[in-house]
């Protein structure tokens, strides 16, 4: 994955400016920065959710402007979105598997993320920690080689953070490419020493 002078604006305000960097297959990179620095927007652009307004980028050989192909190779895990509130945990995971056209043992996924007792609960009934686990279940289903993860450790107790850490370490062992944002350097740097800091929409 590589970008050259990538930029994105909302209305007349540039929220990303001159983002140039590259990530090798199987590598892990963490993005630091204050709220509003542009971290989440960068992940959304890299995942094909948003298009860049300037600059260039390629994801596994596909131009970022080819958003459909990019989305087939990149999975964006939002901090607070991605579950249908009126569907149960198992129904949400089933929908994800159908969307990607993959066959997997959903009960094993539910067990891996520790939601055996909550598989029949609607997403709206889940605590923040349980929602995070359900979102991670979606990530485990996604077949793409690139994982873009927004604040994986946010709003979790220490046990929850360690659980997320273990899931991300498993992804590394599967040679997934990880780019994630974080406000928790102690945890993030257990996954990688390669880091960038965003400030005002550009790398500091």
Keywords:
transport, alpha/beta, 25% strand, Rossmann fold, nucleotide-binding, 7 helices, globular, 10 strands, Heme ABC exporter ATP-binding protein CcmA, 204 residues, six-stranded mixed β-sheet
Description:
The chain is α/β, with parallel strands linked by helices. It has one domain (2-203): 3-Layer(aba) Sandwich (Rossmann fold). It is built from seven helices and ten strands. It has helices spanning 39-46, 67-73, 89-100, 106-112, 128-141, 158-173, 185-188; strands at 2-10, 13-22, 28-32, 54-59, 62-63, 74-77, 146-149, 177-181, 195-199, 202-203. The strands form two sheets. The protein has a six-stranded mixed β-sheet with strand order 6-7-8-3-9-10, sandwiched between helices. Strand 1 (2-10) and strand 2 (13-22) form a beta hairpin. Helix 5 (128-141) packs parallel to helix 6 (158-173). The relative contact order is 0.21.
Number of separate helices: 7
Main structural class: alpha/beta
The first-level CATH class is given as Alpha Beta
Averaged pLDDT, please? 95
SS strand fraction: 25-35%
The name of the CATH architecture is 3-Layer(aba) Sandwich
User: What is the CATH third-level topology name?
Assistant: Rossmann fold
Please indicate the count of domains. Answer: 1
Sequence of strands across the biggest β-sheet: 6-7-8-3-9-10
Element-by-element helix/strand order:
EEEHEEHEHHHEHEHEE
Q: What gyration radius follows from the Cα positions, in whole Å? A: 17 Å
Approximate shape: globular
Which stretches are low in confidence, meaning pLDDT under 50 for 5 or more residues running? Answer: none
State the major sheet: 6 strands, mixed
Gap from first CA to last CA? 20 Å
């Amino acid at each position: 994955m590589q970008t050259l002078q990538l930029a994105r604006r909302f209305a007349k305000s540039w929220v990303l400016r001159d983002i140039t960097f590259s990530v090798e297959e199987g590598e892990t990179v963490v993005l630091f920065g204050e709220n509003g620095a542009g971290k989440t927007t960068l992940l959304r652009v890299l995942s094909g959710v948003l298009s860049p307004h300037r600059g260039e980028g390629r994801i596994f050989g596909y131009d970022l402007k080819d958003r459909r192909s990019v989305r087939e190779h990149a999975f964006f895990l939002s901090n607070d979105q991605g579950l249908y509130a009126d569907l149960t945990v198992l129904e949400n995971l089933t929908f994800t598997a159908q969307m990607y056209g993959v066959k997997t043992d959903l009960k094993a996924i539910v067990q891996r993320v520790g939601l055996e007792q909550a598989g029949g609960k609607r997403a709206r009934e889940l605590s923040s920690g349980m929602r995070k686990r359900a979102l991670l279940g979606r990530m485990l289903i996604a077949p793409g080689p690139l994982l873009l993860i927004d604040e994986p450790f946010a709003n979790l107790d220490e046990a929850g953070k360690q659980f997320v850490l273990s899931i991300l370490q498993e992804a590394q062992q599967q040679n997934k490419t990880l780019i994630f944002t974080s406000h928790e350097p102690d945890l993030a740097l257990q996954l990688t020493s390669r880091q960038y800091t965003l400030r005002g929409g550009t790398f500091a």
